[in-house]
Write a structure and sequence with these properties.
Layout (H helix, E strand, L loop, with lengths): L2 H32 L9 H8 L4 H5 L5 E5 L5 H8 L5 E6 L2 H10 L6 E5 L12 E4 L6 H11 L5 E5 L4 H4 L6 E3 L3 E3 L12 E8 L6
Parallel strand pairs: 1-2, 1-4, 2-3, 4-5
Antiparallel strand pairs: 5-8, 6-8, 7-8
The structure holds S-adenosylmethionine (SAM).
The site of S-adenosylmethionine has 26 residues, from α1, α4 and β2.
Organism: Emiliania huxleyi (strain CCMP1516)
Protein name: DOT1 domain-containing protein
Family: Belongs to the ANT/ATPSC lysine N-methyltransferase family.
């Protein structure tokens, strides 16, 4: 390989590395400032455990009009909700513009797959049938309050790895844990997500707040 080609390749690698680092750096800063998780994509096995044969969706979700991902990252959940879960539409809320652009590019020809450059704390949950979140422990108390205030009765919430503390501590809440399951994910497809729990909840009644 000539010197020029080598220089070209290393410039490309540098540019790609810088872009990836910028996405992750942005993600960490926004996560820290705006109360959310940094960008770590869910393992494909977890997405399959929701939308695959015999998954959470088949046994627990009764209506399939609208699925929501709170912090949608690269958009895998939104795409799977429409393409495998046959939801009429799915919306991802994401603060990182690079991830929103990346996700939109993959859904450019798809109907019903939407990505909003918007904080998950401003997400409209009023007609959500299924909500997915891969958050961090520090947001789970406030998130539980938002979900119980805004979700319609019967909506299903799936949380990757982290439990809602009120449910864990046995306190009365409108979110009832229904079918949590261990998913053997391994470290697949360069995902940093690993084997772990998917916690599944149903919103039983409006919060009295
Ligand atoms: C752990 S990743 C999960 C990504 C995706 N849901 C998945 O499971 O593959 C969390 C995502 O939430 C985004 N995020 C963090 N805080 C947020 C906020 N306040 N509003 C919207 N998105 C946020 C991050 O940029 C990141 O992409």
């Amino acid at each position: 390989m000539g010197n020029e080609a080598r220089v070209g390749r290393s410039e490309l690698a540098l540019a790609a590395g810088t872009a990836v680092n910028a996405v992750f750096a942005y993600s960490f800063v926004t996560a820290w400032r705006r109360k959310g998780a940094p960008f770590v994509p869910s393992a494909q096995a977890k997405i399959d455990a929701i939308f695959g044969r015999g998954g959470v969706l088949q046994s627990h979700v009764r209506r399939r009009q609208h699925a929501v991902d709170l912090g949608s990252g690269g958009g895998a959940f939104v795409r799977a909700a429409v393409r495998n879960g046959h939801f009429a539409r799915a919306t991802g809320y994401e603060l990182n513009p690079a991830l929103v652009l990346f996700a939109r590019m993959q859904s450019v020809l798809a109907r019903g797959e939407h990505f909003r450059l918007c904080s998950l704390w401003d997400a409209d949950l009023s007609d959500a049938d299924l909500v997915f979140v891969y958050g961090v422990p520090s947001i789970m108390v406030a998130l539980e309050a938002k979900l119980t205030r805004e979700l319609p009765v019967d909506a299903v919430v799936v949380s990757n790895l982290f439990r809602f503390p009120d449910v864990e501590n046995g306190r009365t809440t409108a979110l009832v844990e229904e079918a949590s399951q261990w998913v053997d994910a391994g470290l697949q497809n360069l995902s940093m997500d690993d084997s772990g729990m998917l916690f599944v909840y149903r919103h039983r009644a409006k919060s009295s707040e």
